[in-house]
Design goal:
about 600 residues, 6-stranded mixed sheet, 4-stranded antiparallel sheet
């Protein structure tokens, strides 16, 4: 794990090394200022010559001002190096995480959940980046300050330095308590944050549905619950820090008061006894400054340890993402293996989403589809229609059996070679932020304007596009929220057609368009330009698939029947029931 996170320093290693070097110089310079101040107080206290005192004052003040300017410069360099290094580290970490997620199969994404992945990409990476910044600055500064300040304190007075014997253990105990209590709470906080993000994402994505069903009050109540849970968990996590901080300050100030008291007694005792060369007044001031720095640095070191401990959950969560092995890879694929035609074959294919599941979603599927053939798929909800077609472009891999495309097992292809020849229009018709043209060009970035228009016409989208003020340059908004559901479906079909695939899969892709437009789309797909494309059409309406060369009826993950519309009406009970019910619905209208 450490080696993995170390790799995120690529391009920023020099700045990462420079930061602690500058921090060390800053500490050395900073610790000279209390020493000069102590010498100044001692001289002013002991001298009886006003002119000499004035000269000494000016000289020491100039010396301290010079050191302050120098520490400001060194501190600025250290801060700049730290900021750039930590931002670079964070950017590399997010890029690695994003790239890893891009390699995930649908199964990996199903396992980790989208809302959780978003939290890991944002909250968890920010927490780890903050810890990294603390390590290269605060964690380095603390030990340097602790060691040097202790050294200088012992040089001033070994007797006074015994104060550390009592205060250091007290600080360590308090911060260990903090660590043990805080870690579980911060781990729980991350889990609650996942739930919060999931609820928020669900509501924002489904805001139109919420308003359509007038469920705003319900959604507000649900949001308030997760929001309150987040607030309460955050408060519990922060309470410990809030309790510990005042106690630590009590310890520090108590030690300073003790140093002043004991130091003053020693000075008074030495003065009354006529002893010279002992503890001086200015040294007491210097010693109290060093006490503050020693204890503050120790507190800082231990707080960084606590921060690291609380960030451990974030590290584990990111590690879980990085350790995920994509369940579908093209490692066995050959770059030279290309899809020769649009034939598809399923040989004894069974599938289940989870290996622990008892029942298969698809069971013993055997099916051959000829290149250029139009296949309709119909079945009741949950009959695994979408699951079946998702095996063709290897969005999932068959649990048992084999899937062939173009005469080759799909595992023999590189993803690029396979998926550029298999265009799928899924049930969730998603458009990206940008213009209509930008979205259509996802199908083929090199397509000409004429090809874009031709695909849009085939999908019956050109007319409504041209009715818009900016035509193909119209912004569609995130997810395509500025166009209707039917328009979004047609744009997604046009995007798939622009890809010029050998296999076109329409997964209930005309459910939101009227039957007349649906018929026009099907008629366009019969045209000369698309006649050699293998078309697999999943439909809920029999009218969408009744003219297909063959229709596959799925029932509970099994093939219930295969044939033409006329054949299935006569021979397949499931298909006939669907046909009769839909015919009755039409007559009732």
């Amino acid at each position: 794990m450490f080696k993995r996170f170390l790799s995120f320093l690529k391009g920023y290693r020099i700045l990462t090394i420079m930061t602690p070097v500058m921090v060390f110089l800053d500490v050395v310079i900073e610790l000279q200022i209390p020493k000069i101040m102590g010498e100044l107080i001692t001289m002013l206290y002991s001298t009886e010559n006003p002119d000499f005192a004035h000269d000494v004052l000016n000289m020491k003040l100039l010396e301290m001002l010079g050191l302050c300017a120098l520490t400001l410069l060194v501190g600025y360099i250290a801060s700049r190096c730290s900021a750039i290094a930590s931002m670079g580290f964070s950017a590399n970490m997010r890029s690695a995480l994003f790239n890893k997620i891009q390699d995930f199969s649908f199964e990996n994404i199903d396992k980790l959940k989208v809302s959780s992945l978003i939290t890991r990409m944002t909250s968890d990476t920010s927490r780890i980046s903050s810890v990294f910044s603390n390590i290269i600055v605060t964690f380095v500064r603390g030990p340097f300050l602790l060691i040097l300040a202790l050294k200088y304190s012992l040089e001033i007075s070994r007797d006074l330095s015994k104060i550390f014997i009592f205060c250091v253990p007290a600080i360590i105990v308090l911060l260990v308590i903090l660590g043990f209590a805080a870690v579980p709470l911060f781990r729980k906080l991350l889990k609650v944050t996942d739930d919060f993000n999931g609820t928020l994402r669900s509501n924002i994505n489904g805001i139109r549905v919420v308003k359509s069903f007038v469920r705003e009050d319900y959604e507000k109540e649900k949001f308030e619950k997760v929001n309150d849970a987040l607030v309460q968990t955050s408060i519990r996590a922060q309470k410990i820090v809030l309790y510990i901080a005042p106690l630590l300050m009590v310890v520090i100030y108590g030690c300073m008061v003790a140093a002043l008291f004991l130091g003053s007694k020693i000075v008074i005792s030495d003065t009354l006894a006529g002893i010279s060369g002992g503890l001086e007044v200015g040294q007491i001031t210097t010693f109290t400054s060093y006490i503050s720095q020693v204890l503050s640095s120790l507190m800082t070191i231990l707080m960084v340890f606590v921060t690291i401990a609380t960030a451990k959950a974030s590290v584990e969560r990111l590690g879980e993402v990085f350790d995920q092995v994509p369940t579908v890879t093209d490692d066995e694929g050959d770059e030279n293996t290309l899809v020769d035609d649009g034939s598809v074959e399923f040989r004894n294919v069974s599938f289940k989403y989870e290996s622990e599941a008892v029942k298969n979603v698809l069971e013993n599927i055997n099916l051959k589809i000829k290149s250029g053939e139009t296949i309709g798929i119909i079945g009741s909800t949950g009959s695994a229609k979408s699951t079946l077609v998702q095996l063709v472009p290897r969005l999932y891999d068959a649990t048992e059996g084999e899937v062939f495309v173009g005469g080759h097992n799909v595992k023999e292809y590189k993803f690029q070679n396979l998926r550029k020849e298999v265009a799928i229009v899924p049930q969730q018709h998603f458009l990206f932020s940008g213009t209509i043209k930008d979205n259509l060009l996802w199908g083929d970035l090199s397509a000409s304007d004429e090809e874009v228009i031709e695909a849009a016409k085939a999908a019956q989208a050109h007319d409504f596009i041209m009715e818009k003020e900016k035509g193909y340059d119209t912004e569609v908004g995130q997810g395509g929220n500025t166009v209707s559901g039917g328009q979004r479906q047609r744009l997604c079909i046009a995007r798939a057609l622009l890809r010029k695939p050998k296999i076109l899969i329409l997964d209930d892709s005309t459910s939101a368009v009227d039957t007349a437009t649906d018929a026009k789309i099907r008629e366009a797909l019969k045209g000369e330009k698309f006649k050699n494309i293998t078309k697999i059409i999943i439909g809920q309406r029999i009218t969408s698939i009744m003219n297909a060369d063959r229709i596959i009826v799925l029932e509970d993950g099994r093939i219930s029947g295969i044939g033409t519309h006329d054949e299935l009406v006569k021979t397949n009970e499931v298909y006939n029931e669907i046909f009769v019910s839909q015919q009755e619905g039409v007559l009732a209208q």
